[in-house]
Structure prediction request, 479 residues.
Amino acid sequence: MTTYFVSQYLNVIDLETSTLLFNGANGVMDEVGNALGDKLRAPRTPVDLSDMSESEIRYLKKRGHITPLSQEEEVETLKHIARSLHQQDQKSAKEEGHIMFLLSYNCNLDCHYCYQRQIRRRDRKSHHAQVMSPAFVEELFTQHFKTLFPGVPYHRVSITLYGGEPFLPRHTQAIAKILELAHQTPIQNIGAVTNGTQIETMLDFFGPLPDQVTNVQITLDGAQESHDQSRIPPSKTPTFQKIIANVRRLLEKKVRVNLRINISPESIHQLDRLAEFLEKQELLAHPLVYSYVNPISIHYDQTDEEGLLSVAEVSNYLTNSPISKQLRTPAGRRADHFRYLLSRQKGVTGLTRSSFCMISTENEVVVDPYGDIYKCYDEAGREEYKVGEIREGQIKWFEPVLKAYLSRNISTMEQCSTCSVALACGGECAALAKAKYHDYFTPYCNDVKSVFLDAIKSLYQERTMDMKQNNIDINHPYL
Prediction:
């Protein structure tokens, strides 16, 4: 008789009166009795089939919860899936492009955790803090886009303005040139990552039209009490109220705002006050605002990791809090990502994340004012990480570095290939992994597995409740 093993990729999730089987290799979910859930709780253990019918065994095998494969065979199967997915992803990525214009490393704020502080200190010491010029912007558009994004039409390229702080007065001419050339080409998707403190001086650049900045990310460091001690200029001038005023100005211009709430062990206890304030300001429910909570991360030893929170700690703290209904937690954001899983009845479920971010994706680059090209905005300014450079009108690629970046996916990271949520995760942030472990091919897990499983559980329960409320029969095998 064939011996079956519990799949390496099966996650057994406790519900209130039953058990959810979630297979991280294929994305299928089945709600079963607790007795069966307990029997399948230990990965790679032989399954006792004595009290199962042939149809039950066939069903569990078909769903991938049990397998006759050896562990090595099962892992190699996942690697094969991941390689195929990564090849498909790279093929799709070559059909479009994304460029981040890092206008300079200058910033008007002096946040203690900023991963660019070392870059700014270096520029100040050298007395050569370069600012991107309109002439270089035009060179990028007219000479280098075809090399950066071969075969990609302009209308399939997106732009992000970045820094430092992009909306400093010294960047005005470069931004104006970017928007002018975007209108001529035409490029239709322009966003920005900004601290939000200078926006009122450049409002004409913002709006809902293709040649305007249509979406921005702005950060608050928790409620005003903590924000005005943290996210401030060297003069210590408070910035919270100014940023809120500028958010309102952007919304009046029909600009979409991602409001990122940075969280530390001190500021997490102030989230209820922040949520109450944002609600009174009519920002939480605003259709153009997406508010989410994220813990401050360690980058290049710029702050003490021991004093930071993990994504799991933030999610656990907020799990039973009404705040999680208003501000998206790390688990809530992943739930948003997985929501389509429970809307599918059959076929491919969508667990296809073979890699995590732009660092492993074709046709995504950061270009700084020195003409250096990077694959990650976290690494920009650290010359040892650049993948190319623009000098004297020519692009020179550092092929070995670029090839290594693009090869990072869960099939090339051994820890990921045995993980039961790898195809939902993609190995997480490569830059953080390099900074902490000095190895791009190590995942940056940071307790995210528990966050993923909490997200799956809450989504499943949400879906089930919706179906019950709508008097729709639940056909569990297809959820």
User: Anything to note?
Assistant: Residues 345-349, 468-479 have pLDDT under 50 and may be disordered. The first strand starts at residue 5 and ends at 6.
